[in-house]
Amino acid sequence: MNDDVRNIVLGLVATGISASLGWLARTYVWRRRLRRTQAFFGLPDNSESLLVVNRDAGGPELTVSRNDVFALLELSALIKDCHAHARVVTHDAAQQGFGERTEFCLGGPASNRRMAAHLASLVPGVRVNTDGEPGPDRGAFRIGGETHRLEKGLSEHVLLARLTMGRDTRPVFLFCGQRAITNQAATRYLARHHARLHRKYGTGSFVLLLKVVNSQAYGPDVVELVADVTRAARTPLPETAAADTAAQRVSTTFTGT
Question: Helices 180-201 and 3-41: crossing angle, nearest 10°?
Answer without folding.
Answer: 120
